[in-house]
Amino acid sequence: MLKRSLDAEIYHTGTSYTSFEAIGVHLKVLSRDIYILVIYRPPSSSGINSMNTFMEEFSSCLEHYVIKPGSLMIAGDFNLHIDRSSDVSTINFLSLLEAFNLRQHVTQATHRAGHFLDLIISRNDDNGFLQSVNVHDSSMSDHFTVMCSLNIRKPYFQKKMVSSRKLKSVDFDAIKSCIKRSALLAHDPTNISQCVDLYNSELSRILDCHAPLTTRVVTIRPAAPWYNDEIKIEKKRRRQLERRWRASGLLSDRRRFTEQCRLVNQLLWSSRSRFYSKVVNENQSDQRKLFSTVDKLLHRTPDVIYPPHTNAEELARRFITFFANKISTIHQGLVQRCPNDAGYVDAPISSCTLTHFETVSVDDLLPLARRISKKSCDLDPVPAQLLTGCLD
């Protein structure tokens, strides 16, 4: 799980391993390459033959990573007793790391039995990358938490340009007055094209006057609408209890910290549950909103990835060309498949003609206009909600 602000991609070696599980990530942080490899070697592979297989496969895996430019960090549960310096497996493993110019940073037990099982490894000559490796007893597992600091700059939050209008603060009476004084009522267009052009231009001008389009840069921050002040206070209390326990080491302080962790987790779960239950109950008739909420909860909403392009107009033209060529290809294929002597059935000619139309009045249009959906697109001169608000 990665933040969207990180430029990251899964790195595959193209090889599957039987003695351990691995996942690699390639990070691009401000033009700097960072490779992170997470390893899990299950305890069941602790036999001699399994250890030999692990050494061979892990060596093959390292060959893919050590040649990559930039920094490298390998972390995970290796289930090796590195603390036993005379153990053959430990000697062979450390020799393998040395052969690849790597070093292991954990210097204290990471398991309740007193062994070094969880390791953090980096390049031997990359001294400024990995700093301050610490082991903490989180009291949640038989394994301790191994934490380290990486000397990299935190990526900035993503920013984007957004354009909007303050439609909620518009004065509908003032807009109605402008419409009455506009060319829409002063001129009488002679054809439908002139009427549509006048409608679009005048309404766009009036909209720009009362709700001008403003463009600004916004920072994209993580959204957590279910997060509240109670959770914030209890998380602060949890940090205080953790610091007290780290300083004293007393079992009583550890018990209070553990209880506070459970309380915070329960608050997070219940707050999320209440929020999404409310969303579901309030949108029972809105299937689109319900499916969108479910997709978000299940992380089934992938980002829309467009082909590389210099600007939006250039991308739109490429889409138009693609579909135009596709339609042309289909048409040519149908023509080639159709025999030249194929018979055609003449369509019957109707004797009915449309020679007279009744004039549409304002009273005829108002009921139709009031029932239109309040949806708009960039081609509309004014948003639908503004149009329906000025109908009377």
UniProtKB/TrEMBL annotation:
Coiled coil: none annotated. One of its GO terms (molecular function) is catalytic activity. It comes from the Eukaryota. Signal peptide: none annotated. InterPro entries: Endo/exonu/phosph_ase_sf, Endo/exonuclease/phosphatase. Residues 34-146 form the Endonuclease/exonuclease/phosphatase domain. SUPFAM superfamilies: DNase I-like. This is Endonuclease/exonuclease/phosphatase domain-containing protein. It comes from Acropora cervicornis (Staghorn coral).
